[in-house]
Amino acid sequence: MRHDPQDPISRKPADLEILHRHLLGQLEPEEFQELENELLASKESRADYLRAVRLDAALHEESSRLREEEPAERVNVIKWSSIAIAAAAVVLAMLGIWKSLNREPSSPLAGSSATEEIATMADTRDCKWKQSASLKIENRLSAGMLELESGVALIEFDSGAKLALQGPARLELISTKLARLHFGNATVRCEQGLYSFSLQTPTSTVIDLGTEFGVAVEPSGLSEVHVLDGEVEVAESTNKEQQSTSFLSVGETMILASNGDSQMVGSSTRKWIRDYTTPADRDAKSAPPKIIARDSFPTDLNQEKKFSLGNGWSSTWWQASKDGRKGEFRFAPLEPLVKRNKQEGLGMLVGGWVEVRRSLAEPIDPEKSQTVYVGFSLHRMNPTQRDKTGKLSEAAFLLRSSKDPSTMLGVALSGLNHWVVLEPGGWERSELPALGKSPFYVVAKIEFDSRRGNRVSVTGFDVSAAIPSHEPEQWELVSQRQLAKIDVPLDVVALQVRQTAFKFGEITLGNSWQAVADPASVQR
Question: pTM for the whole thing?
């Protein structure tokens, strides 16, 4: 644990003022340069800045919600903008003087369109609710109070956080990134790459830092915070003159009394709920592995070069080359692209600025909740050749629609050697570059969910290494849930290359990790 009761982020007041004004968008260019230099030079400053931005976002949502609840005559007296309120709250929180706001919220409306929906009831296990109408699986939830008399309820927030509530308990839903546990037990797991979720108690605010943690609140107000995985930040919120912020790591437990006293204890004796699976998850796990489509390419140096091999396809590969005059792809028969080299292996060589496509026999319906796994080998033929900007060649695997050419979803290896998720209207890049420049076996996991948004995870392995038999707990990149609606079937696989050539091989689409990691063991 790291604990500094004097200054939770070890910054001088002048530094806090600069950060405050930055969040308000009021920094002069030279002040912004000063802040940028500090962030580049100090890992600790970058961590402080990231926590500030996360807290800013959470408090921004909270302050906005509270103003919406205020009577009309009260609104006119508010002088600060929502951003100003949030930014000021961040600085006050850093100085240890932010106080939790007590109020009596309304009950959440399941499936109501009158208020903004922020979460989904993902699972109910022997639940008995105090509400007159029981909440059911897949009910959408808006802000308000949940009172669970018994059982376990799994709530998935639209931010990606999953919360398992164990009755008896009273939980207030505030926003997509914020909830308040009034009493009872709850565990929270934030999906990899999705942070900023906070859980308030009467004595503290627990801020996730890429974590799984448990929180218990007694009727007396005493609360316990236990870290099951990763790390959390605990900001005490009782009426003490000297506030403090603590950082807890995996296995550590903190007890916070209602009078403001807190202490670390050796371990937690509570039984925390750590099962976040939904009925759909369990059904998918029990389903036998299935290959949707596969092209292994020629496996013998003497085999005829064909592009109609494999199964699960309704066409051969064809090439879409760029028409410089119109800026559009034009289609032509595919020329032989097989690389015949014993050392580099067999595969399909795709030249620079070329896209090749092949149609699926069974289109993927993006409006149906399902998970599709994609596996393929990827070899950058000129791993050290860079363009004038210092970038390497780029390659992408895309799912496209023949009905709407602008619709696509997929993954790429960028010119800076980062994994990239490509989605309708945007993209996301991994924080760290891919492991190396050697040939990769790439696996992407595409989770389709028309209600909560699609999500893509990607990771890569050196082709000389064995592919793990089980899905990894940590992917190299997990995208935010993409809410841009895809309402047309995805029926085309596209391989796209920019600059110099890539070689693709062993392309497999399936319903499970096993289907793409060990396709030989799966019957289509």
Answer: 0.69
